[in-house]
Write a structure and sequence with these properties.
- 48% of the residues lie in helices and 5% in strands.
- Residues 1-6 have low confidence and may be disordered.
- The chain is mainly alpha-helical and 147 residues long.
- The longest helix has 20 residues, at 22-41.
- It is flat and about 45 Å long.
- It has two domains: 1-41, no CATH class; 57-146, 3-Layer(aba) Sandwich (Rossmann fold), CATH 3.40.50.
- The chain has helices at 14-17, 22-41, 45-51, 67-77, 90-95, 108-111, 129-146, and strands spanning 84-87, 121-124.
- This is Phosphomevalonate kinase.
- Its EC number is 2.7.4.2.
- It comes from Toxostoma redivivum.
- One of its GO terms (molecular function) is ATP binding.
- Keywords: ATP-binding, Cholesterol biosynthesis, Cholesterol metabolism, Cytoplasm, Kinase, Lipid biosynthesis, Lipid metabolism, Nucleotide-binding, Steroid biosynthesis, Steroid metabolism, Sterol biosynthesis, Sterol metabolism, Transferase.
């Protein structure tokens, strides 16, 4: 399979595409459209890219966005898969400069996992570092027990 074109090939600043800036928002719909085209032709394209060359006993695959992604990992790795959803209130997200954009934030790429997935872990990240740390410690302890 072909690799995705790099942002540099399109004259884009990769680091700025990773943050919540206006710069990213200018290209977000194009990135979503490109990703949807890839998934239509090959539903496992991004999942395989995420695990390519991974040799560690525990992998963290961040930012899966669709039920088909979760299903791919479960089909490929069975019970070894642990799904983790990180949540924050809308108020917290707004404090972190998130602004809802119709036609972007209400699409499958942003809400595809809001239904249909029974997550193994739900971590709340509303700015309470102690509570976040306790939740993450429980997750890490569970992973250690399963090794």
């Amino acid at each position: 399979p072909t690799e995705p074109p790099s942002p540099q090939e399109h004259g884009l600043d990769f680091q700025r595409l990773l943050d919540a800036s206006i710069y990213k928002e200018m290209f977000r719909q194009d990135m979503i459209r490109w990703g949807e085209e890839k998934r239509r032709t090959d539903p496992g394209f991004f999942c395989r890219a995420a695990v390519k060359g991974a040799l560690q006993p525990v992998w963290v695959v961040s930012d899966t966005r669709r039920l088909s992604d979760v299903e791919w990992f479960r089909d490929a790795y069975g019970d070894a898969v642990q799904t983790v959803r990180v949540v924050a209130t809308e108020e917290t997200r707004k404090r972190r400069n998130w602004v809802f954009v119709t036609g972007v934030d209400d699409t499958e790429s942003e809400c595809g996992l809001d239904q249909g997935v029974a997550f193994d872990w739900v971590i709340t990240n509303d700015g309470n570092e102690v509570a976040l740390g306790e939740q993450l410690e429980m997750l890490v302890q569970s992973l250690h027990r399963s090794l």
